[in-house]
């Protein structure tokens, strides 16, 4: 899944409490601070980017702050699973699995 979107802005989906899943296209290279702030019902994030999107990270300012991602599954390209597992905040997801068609 590709498109012309290359970044997701700061707090773009902040407080979207009813969002349970999102698809991040393959062209996304950067995700802003607190982009998914308080998206506490996220269950699945599908990220098609083979290169791990850059995010700012510290304890209270990161793309998925207070979004309960430790209980969510991150779906990424098979060739990139280990890269996501080694990169914070992505590594905080409860499960990181290869995308399936």
Helices and strands in order:
Layout: E1 7-8, E2 21-24, E3 30-31, E4 44-47, E5 54-55, E6 57-58, E7 61-62, E8 73-76, H1 81-85, E9 95-98
What are the defining features of this structure?
single chain, 101 residues, mainly beta, 4-stranded parallel beta sheet, 3-stranded parallel beta sheet, 1 helix, 5% helix
Tell me what the structure shows.
The chain is mainly β and 101 residues long. It has one helix and nine strands; from the N terminus they run ββββββββαβ. The strands form three sheets. The protein has a four-stranded parallel β-sheet. Strands 1-3-5 form a three-stranded parallel β-sheet, with no helix packed on it. A hairpin with a 2-residue loop joins strand 6 and strand 7 (61-62). The longest helix has 5 residues, at 81-85.
Oligomer: single chain
> Major β-sheet, in short?
4 strands, parallel
For the secondary structure, the number of strands is 9
Annotation field: number of helices: 1
Structural class: mainly beta
Level of helix content? under 10%
Average pLDDT for all residues: 92
Shape: globular
Low-pLDDT ranges: none
Strand order of the largest sheet: 2-4-8-9
Kindly report how far apart the N and C termini lie: 11 Å
In percent, how much strand structure appears in the residues? 25-35%
Order of helices and strands: EEEEEEEEHE
Q: What's the quick description here?
A:
This protein is mainly beta. 5% of the residues lie in helices and 26% in strands. The chain starts with 6 loop residues before the first strand and ends with a strand.
